[in-house]
Design a protein that fits this description.
The protein has about 250 residues and is of the alpha/beta class. The chain has two domains: about 150 residues, D-Maltodextrin-Binding Protein, domain 2 (3-Layer(aba) Sandwich); about 90 residues, D-Maltodextrin-Binding Protein, domain 2 (3-Layer(aba) Sandwich). About 35% of the residues lie in helices and about 20% in strands. It contains nine helices and 14 strands. The strands form four sheets. The chain has a five-stranded mixed β-sheet, with helices on both faces. α5 links the parallel β9 and β10. α2 crosses α8. The two termini are about 30 Å apart. About 45% of the residues are buried.
Length: about 250
Amino acid sequence: MRRPVFALVAIAAAGTVLAGVSTATAQVPRVVTALTISGNGPFDIRQGGKLTGFDIQLVERMARLAGARDVTWRVVTFDNLLNAVDNGQAMMGASSITITPQRAAIVDFGSPYLQANMGIVTRRGTTGIVSRRTLQGQVIGVLQGSTAVPVARGIQGARVRQYPTMQATYKALLDAQVNAVINDYGQSRWYVKNNSSKFRYAGVIAVNQQYGLAFNQERDSLRVAMNRALATMKRDGSYQLLINRWGLQSLMP
């Protein structure tokens, strides 16, 4: 049975999920099914045809510590991910998902694991766009369904265009359909680092939010076990190793 929306909102707002509150008795499954997106480095990308990235490696390590044998991934678009988790297409989802009360109404979030500020990206050679204030009146590209959408809409005079993937969003920037892109800080820095001849990292927009793994609300035992696994990773140093490997030190909570 689903927990009341107000309880889920309170959990997300508090920024923590205590492992001991669950009364679920089901065992952790041998194979965890999970959804993600692709082209969202450093969180979830393809290298040599294989999914990898911070979120992918984090979930796979957590799942093993929780007692699962394997994680089976399926790639979807970001605006479909949470609904797909909600309707049981997978047990969980991971893709630098910002915890919000609205999202907590349809999925259960695990313990927060990173800060979720926004980054601004422009074309290389662009000057004058360096902050939220200087985005006023600009055409801004964002990922459809992401928390960058309300941030961009809150900028005075801005015209916001949404795209189904980050690849499409950055292509719109390169083609001068938009003047700037707003997206997760870590992803923005990663993309510019790997495409520095075309793009420029222009600045940060602080939003004071956090990322969490999203779980189907009928999979509470998995959520609890994964929370415990994350705590173990923080104690044994493997969480920090992943942070260092993917250059996310500035997003640590």
